Amino acid sequence: MNNNKQKNSMFDSLWDVFASVKLTVVVLILLATTSVVGTLIPQNADPVVYMRTYGQFVYRLLEVLDIFDMYYSWWFQTLIGILTVNITVCTIKRWPAIWKLVTIKKMQAGSIDNKQPLSKFSDPRNPRELDPLYQAYFEKKYSNLKFKSEEEGFRIVADKGRWTRIGVPVVHFSIVVILVGALIGSFFGFDGFVNISEGESTDYIRLRNSNDTLSLGFEVRCDDFDVSFYDSGAPKEFRSSLVILENGQKVAEKDIIVNDPLRYKGIKFYQSSYGALPPKNYQISFSSTDLDQSVVHELSIGQSVELPDGEGRFAVREYVQDYMFRGNRVGAAILGVLDKPGKEPMEVALPLRFPTFDKMRSGDWVISVEGYDKAYYTGLQVTRDPGILFVYAGFTLLLLGCWVAFFMSHQKIVVDVKSSSDSSRIRVFGSTNRNHLGFENAAHKLGEKLGKL
């Protein structure tokens, strides 16, 4: 028996903690503060950037606290969970009183002796003549009515908009739905990336901030990639033609650009980046320095060609993405080997951006890259968020609940009709839970309409 009492006491204490508005305020402050931190500290950046900015000790400390990916950290998810439970308990605790106001059938006029009427006027007709007119009018305008006959007249009690009392609980419930959607997305969704070369496909992605890979269960292929540039050289638009394959069969396809993803089985493929691939074929030009003679050969990595007139052999050895010459970066280049009879093989660098670079070698033949096949890879951000439907539903409920809570109201009207010498005295009382000024204006208009019946 004592154990049951102790358990009930612990449950009641825990219930009171989660039903506290103070807890709501504290959690919201913590979430707001951490969100500011998440804004000031870039999320999911390269560890090298963090190390350079904060130093090794601070970097390790922030990494342990999951500050660099805080929106997916255990402590941020815990705060979201606490807020969800807190709002749910607060709503459950207050729901019985709200539901009683919505469903109560017995209507009481309450004491009006010491209250100021919102509208008052006189009518030359006696209360008996006004009774059927007023009842017919209120029956058309109000569904909840109570008529009470009195010695010197009658009283009408009416109200409308009771259901608007649930506007605030709907707002609370919508926030819970949004938070639940966020938690579902955090626990069961993923965020990854993949680079796909033109004409190639893949069936897995690499998860962000992890060395882990994730199988998609199908293939995604990049059939084509296209990029356009501004005059300044900055990329204007890049577009990928993607195809989804299952069991070798095409099941979906779309040309995607930034903010216009391909969606398939709840997974979204966003265009996020691109890059140049090493060219496969090069048009190598050999120009004589003393004779007006030039010849072009198409070569790929590992291939070689004889120079004219038996002057030697040139072989394409490798592609270098960022070639350094005397401490300066000259960009992409191919490195070749020039093997001339009776001489040691010589390395020849051919930067793609500088066709006349080989002239500095002062040889009999100037070698240059006249052209090459351009190829790109597309960088895709791949995400899945199974909680997104909850988030959308929650925001819809939030808008609806806010509209009801802030722009609609529960209104109660009391019309007191008393005989006064050879006429009737009519007073209109009322109350509302919001927009009191607007309600007073409505009560004045009601008095004017009753006076014209």
Task: Compose a concise summary of this entry.
This protein has 8 helices and 20 strands.
Describe what you observe in this structure.
The protein has 453 residues and is α+β, with helices and mostly antiparallel strands. It folds into four domains: 2-100; 104-161 and 409-451, TATA-Binding Protein (2-Layer Sandwich); 172-278 and 377-399, Sandwich (Tick-borne Encephalitis virus Glycoprotein, domain 1), CATH 2.60.98; 282-373, no CATH class. It contains eight helices and 20 strands. It has helices at residues 2-18, 21-40, 47-64, 74-103, 127-141, 167-188, 388-407, 436-451; strands at residues 119-123, 144-150, 153-160, 190-197, 201-207, 213-229, 235-246, 249-256, 262-264, 267-277, 282-288, 294-299, 304-306, 313-325, 328-339, 346-351, 365-372, 375-384, 411-420, 423-432. The strands form four sheets. It has an eight-stranded antiparallel sheet. It has a five-stranded antiparallel sheet with strand order 1-20-19-3-2, covered by helices on one side. Helix 4 (74-103) runs antiparallel to helix 6 (167-188).
Give the C-alpha Rg.
Answer: 39 Å
- What's the count of strands? 20
**Strand residues, percent:** 35-45%
Q: Largest beta sheet: what is the strand line-up? A: 8-7-6-5-4-18-10-9
Question: What keywords describe this structure?
Answer:
453 residues; Tick-borne Encephalitis virus Glycoprotein, domain 1; alpha+beta; TATA-Binding Protein; 5-stranded antiparallel sheet
Could you outline the blueprint of secondary structure elements for this entry?
Elements: H1 2-18, H2 21-40, H3 47-64, H4 74-103, E1 119-123, H5 127-141, E2 144-150, E3 153-160, H6 167-188, E4 190-197, E5 201-207, E6 213-229, E7 235-246, E8 249-256, E9 262-264, E10 267-277, E11 282-288, E12 294-299, E13 304-306, E14 313-325, E15 328-339, E16 346-351, E17 365-372, E18 375-384, H7 388-407, E19 411-420, E20 423-432, H8 436-451
Helix pairs in contact: 2-4, 4-6, 6-7
